[in-house]
Amino acid sequence: MDEHAPLSLTVPEPEVRPGGEPDFSSVKIPRAGAIRRPEVDEDPENMRDLAFGIIRVLNRDGEAVGPWAGTLSDDELRQGLEHMMTLRTYDARMMNAQRQGKTSFYMQHLGEEAVSCAFQRVLRPGDMNFPTYRQAGLLIASDYPLTTMMNQVYSNEADPLRGRQLPIMYSSKEHGFFSISGNLATQFIQAVGWAMASAISHDDKIAAAWIGDGSTAESDFHAALVFASTYKAPVVLNIVNNQWAISTFQGIARGGSGTFAARGHGFGIPALRVDGNDFLAVHAAGKWAAERARRNLGPTIVEYVTYRAGGHSTSDDPSAYRPKQESDAWPLGDPVLRLKAHLIARGLWSEERHTQLEAEVLDRVIASQKEAEAIGTLHTGRRPSARDMFEDVYAEMPPHLVAQRHQAGY
Amino acid sequence: MAHMTMIEAIQNALDISMGRDEKVVVFGEDVGYFGGVFRCTAGLQKKYGKSRCFDTPISELGIVGAAVGMAAYGLKPCVEIQFADYVYPAYDQIVSEAARLRYRSAGGFTCPLVVRMPAGGGIYGGQTHSQSPEALFTHVAGLKTVVPSTPSDAKGLLTAAIEDPDPVIFLEPKRIYNGPFDGHHDRPIVPWKKHQGGQVEEGYYKIPLGQAAIRRPGKALTVLAYGTMVHVALAAVEEAGVDAEVIDLRTLMPLDAKTIMQSVKKTGRCVIVHEATQTSGFGAELAAQVQAECFYHLEAPVTRVAGWDTPYPHSQEWDYFPGPARIIRAITGVMESVQ
Q1: Domains in chain B, please, with CATH?
Q2: Lowest pLDDT segment from A49-63, A267-281, A351-365, B185-199
Q3: Is the CB of B58 less than 8 angstroms away from the CB of A248?
Q4: Which portions of chain B are predicted below pLDDT 50?
Q5: Residue B212 to residues A97, A123, A336, B166: CA-CA distances in angstroms?
Q6: Is B184 one of the catalytic residues?
Q7: How far is B100 from chain A (nearest CA, A)?
Q8: CATH code for the structural domain at A44-379
Q9: Of B3, B129, B184, B195, which residue is the catalytic one?
Q10: Model confidence pTM above 0.90
Q11: What is the ipTM of this complex?
């Protein structure tokens, strides 16, 4: 025997569990405007500090401050607010529709609306997102029709995916939204491949990869980093750190590394860490990363620090694994309220206009919902034919599938 | 005897195994504090501590690869993959490593691990929460593959799987976690708690791997099924009014060929039912073995009823699922067939 105690296994634990007082004192939040903004072509070796701070633009008074401010016009900001409000309202209606049995499943974005709604503004037509299941703001901010989204959620006859996919697993090539898999992390390396193809083809398009904090544990994430690093792929590698992977807190996936963003350093990939509830900061960081990609400077990791205020999905009850009030204690606030406060502080917005817009958005979402429900929902109205089930397995239906389709009566 | 759901029976098997043998460790995504998204590991972390039941990062490759290492050390890992549809990142670790460790080291290293995963459809889970990948495992030399159809079997078979010296793939039909399912999705289900089949012995017991169970004796034809489809087949047989013998395979590898062949030699007719896609499905193996062993006893071609050869669709779930109507049609066809 030597002098050491026997070994023991380390299993990280969140600071608080149900019944405890929410505590985010360990989340170190720099003041708005405090993080420097390097030139996009600065040597990644010299900007490792950016993976450990949090880039923030909006301060407590709703002012936009510091070197990352000023990337959006007044109109763009107002439109951004509207997109976030639309997403939130859409989510609320669809959550309710699921509870009413109009669809089988839903996943909402509550608290994370800024990430996808702001990021979409840095992309151009032809660029491609490889999203996870919590980035529908990319579609809303690219004016994808709400009714079409609902048709997909309802699996009705007008569902562009013909009822085959789980609700919210949207797909639209025209809107730069790659088909959502449902399996985690698989799309992260695919985005790198898409970006490599753009480079091989001497194109000017870039890709945006998306992943959650939990899924960075999948090998696909690490494969994506090594390929992106080796080939300097024109891709923005987005990590949405919403603190929870179903019941598992982010420390299980992060392990001993300081931040998710810092994972990029071993690959020589520059990494930003951003306040995901600050619409302006998300946009500024995304724009910076997209510019690096467009200038052929290679990939950038962007970690959005946010909080999943709702359940993982309609099948999840977060009160079983985290304090009920934890969401209220989240120190980065609510993205909608923060942008609203900013616009009001600048005299571009008012409580009255906000209330009016809320009503308009609700009307619009309800009108879309009525339109979609007039076509059908999962169990009622006009639905895709069982015949559709046999299409698109291959470009050309092989004889055995033709035979099976006949057997099925179609 | 107690009444248990299949979930409770699985939890109970894990609990008893962990209590009997401190080498048994349980881990996977959400299995620790939360007790699993289906609650199969509820309470185990609290009872046995974080070193023996813990949450993992979301890496199926990591879960199974780590389990291989632990098994090689001498522990008995029983890991959970949250849905069978998510097992593919771990496939290399299962196929190239776990399955062959004993063979390639001439017994120097072994891999007594269990990979549990909910499988099958019928829950509107779409293509990523509905698959039945059993044939991908039965095709691999070195693996054992188990699919229980009752709470009592789930407990006994899981206990046997944990004690088995080789890697076992344990597929749990999630549609019957809470109650048997006769294939009529529009009818209310009877929960296991109120069902005769929900009776489970409370203490330690195991059901040896490789033994089928005759769920309904009969003379007119043999129906081979496993998992959810055992219940669907039993209902279909009653509706068809045929004196069929329904065999629940329980373990696909090793296969209880003796029970199957005795039955088919007696009845002369065989219908095979599974939810997985038909082509190269486990039914193909069964059909091949039955025709080889029972050729001179067969009165009709061996017939398969299986999922269509498409990905598992969301809204067309009940058009995809090989329900009672299709099974009855197959039974009728086989019964009318005259050699």
Answers
A1: 2-200 (3.40.50.970), 213-336 (3.40.50.920)
A2: B185-199
A3: yes
A4: none
A5: 44, 58, 59, 20
A6: no
A7: 22
A8: 3.40.50.970
A9: B129
A10: yes
A11: 0.92
